[in-house]
Amino acid sequence: MSEATLSSSSYLQSLLNGQARPAASTQVWLNQLRSSAVETVSELTVPTTRDEEWRFTDISLLTKVSLQPALVSNNLTAADIKPFLIKEATTRLVFVDGVYAPNLSTAAKKEIVVSNLYSELAKNSAVLQQHLGSHAEIKGNAFTALNTAFLHDAALIMLPRNATLKAPVHLLFIASQKEVVSYPRTLVLADNGCEATIVEDYVSLQDEAYFTNAVSEFVLADNARLHHIRVQREGAKAFHIANCSAILSRSSNYQSVNVAMGARISRYNLNIRMAEGAECSADGLALIKNRQLADTHTFIDHAQAHGISRQLHKCIVGGAAHAVFNGKIMVRHGSQKTDSQQSNHTLLLTDKAHVDTKPQLEIFADDVKCTHGATIGQLDNEEVFYLQSRGLSETLARNMLTYAFGAEIIERINVNSLKHSLEQTVLEQTSTQL
Amino acid sequence: MIYPNSKTILEVRNLCASVSGTPILKNMNFTVKSGEVHAIMGPNGSGKSTFSKVLAGHSDYEITGGTVLFEGKDLLELAPEERARAGLFLAFQYPIEIPGVGNSQFLRLTYNTVQSHRGNEELDPLEFDDFVRDKMKLLEMREDFLDRSVNAGFSGGEKKRNEILQMALLEPRLAILDETDSGLDIDALRIVSKGVNHLANKDNAIVLVTHYQRLLDYIVPDFVHVMEAGRIIKSGGKELAVELETRGYDWVSDEYKAASRVAA
Ligand SMILES: Nc1ncnc2c1ncn2[C@@H]1O[C@H](COP(=O)(O)OP(=O)(O)OP(=O)(O)O)[C@@H](O)[C@H]1O
Ligand SMILES: [Mg+2]
């Protein structure tokens, strides 16, 4: 073993041993899931830029942050979380530094379950055993394995057959302490024909360094329809690494919008596996500045025929920030009539801003329609001049155009108050860029 | 219309401008007084749009000589937005599309920005809505224009109308309309011209850049100028446009060359 791998595997060990592992559960399968995750972690090292999947994303900074065990006592009040509330959302689960906060949450436990997974373990053991950890692969993924090793509190949403949730469900993950690691976890089980909107939201109450290592699993049965809105607005010095797996059964529909604007370094892996006739969109906006790094890796797997996928990913990169987009689309053998479109557009606001983008199309079926396109550019001077010639200052003109570039993604968020507050954030953020 | 004792709005003297080292405007001279309508004609590539954009302050063009006074002030000193606030308006030959910026938001923002710099009251969204709908009627524009992004997906004619709508909102002292008539069908041409005529008064002035006499049937110019190779080579009254329509530009060019030789 080289020195580098030694130290990076010992880093994972330090995370593993740095805080108390959850006490054994009465559910034997859960204990087994955790211990196999612990084992997997021991076999892995922190990825470096020598790993193909991490070529552009250097996370060595993370290994230099000293992390302590989180204090479990959460004394946040309703007033503390008020700025983050989404008024349309009538059910809400709040996790503070990874720990479920029942006093801040409004759960649902009847036919529709929106609850802390840990309190549902006994009641729904069979179905949870079937799904929890089966879709988010720990093999070869140190971060998913770490999250699984610490599996305890988690957001659980179970939507019964044909249920329609009119109001969005808000999953709010709050970082309140510095220099701690949290392991947010989400499991969504959407039964046949159900429909819902889920907002997965990462926020911070403080500006010092911490590490969020999140894992989500979305399981859509036949004809289920989910909107998944993900907002990553972590603190400026945070590290955010997240893995999400969405499993789409026949003719199900998964619409995801992912907005990344926080964290010093963030990485989001979204894997979507599509059965016959499934439909998905995987849209994203990374809005970063200063020395931020935001990496979005998506993998859309057309595992069966007649799938439709749409992807529009945009990056607005200011300061000396660095965006990464890797969009892999796989059309497997026999996945005929697949219809896939991907586009990726980047706006670089300064000379120091940069982006690494890599579309990856792997097509093993012959009767398919797959397109992709990418652009990287700066604001169009003619557009700036047009606005100036109407009396707007150059700064305002540039802000408006930057905002408009990002608005195309924000507009796809189907929760109005969230959409408007994000639009406001984008406007404010773009106006401090110049 | 020519009024006695009217004030000079624009005075261009020996203006020279180049783009990436290539001279485009070569000793351009041009004076506009309040109340007047001028038409600038001339072959493709003669510098008409360049002249318009130089006046509006486009940064692609380097001013290599000459002066421009706008209501007595040095126009070339001002940033593009300051020129607009001072009352200069350019209707673009090719208005650009700005997807993501709502037309009504954009129009209100420009209106309020310019008004506040002129020391006038701004309008809130409701007041502005009434105000803009009124102006849109003048141009017979469909109401859904307001809900769309600026010029995005507009037809050529719709874009041109949107330009004149902006002119109506900003009430410029000097409006330069660069080929606003190109791409308009005969009905749209009539409507747009009616709008422009409605906006013209004794305190402002209009410069029409056009290739076609038919526009000048609707908006009758006091002066017609022919531009070639970056300067005005002939000026006359509205009959000059009629003559150009039948005879083309060559004779003007020949006349100019002959006169230059004599002068030399
Ligand atoms: N930004 C630019 N970069 C390079 N060349 C330019 C630029 N702008 C204008 N030119 C050149 O300057 C000359 C004058 O162009 P301009 O557009 O002003 O002509 P015009 O009289 O408006 O023509 P038209 O009747 O076709 O609209 C042309 O040769 C054109 O190619
Ligand atoms: Mg032109």
What does this protein look like?
The complex is a heterodimer of chains A (434) and B (264). Chain A is built from 9 helices and 21 strands. Chain A is an alpha/beta fold. Chain A has 2 domains: 273 residues, no CATH class; 55 residues, no CATH class. In chain A, a hairpin with a 2-residue loop joins strand 1 and strand 2. Chain A is globular. The N and C termini of chain A lie far apart (47 Å). The relative contact order of chain A is 0.09. Chain B is of the alpha/beta class and 264 residues long. Chain B has a domain of 181 residues: Rossmann fold, CATH 3.40.50.300. Helices cover 39% and strands 28% of the residues of chain B. Chain B has 9 helices and 12 strands. In chain B, the strands form 3 sheets. Chain B has a 6-stranded mixed β-sheet with strand order 6-9-10-3-11-12, with helices on both faces. In chain B, strands 2-1-4-5 form a 4-stranded antiparallel β-sheet. In chain B, strands 7-8 form a two-stranded antiparallel ribbon. In chain B, helix 6 links the parallel strand 9 and strand 10. Chain B is globular. Chain B starts with 7 loop residues before the first strand and ends with a helix. The mean pLDDT of chain B is 94. At the A-B interface, helix 7 and helix 8 of A face helix 2, strand 7 and helix 3 of B. Magnesium ion binds next to helix 1 of chain B.
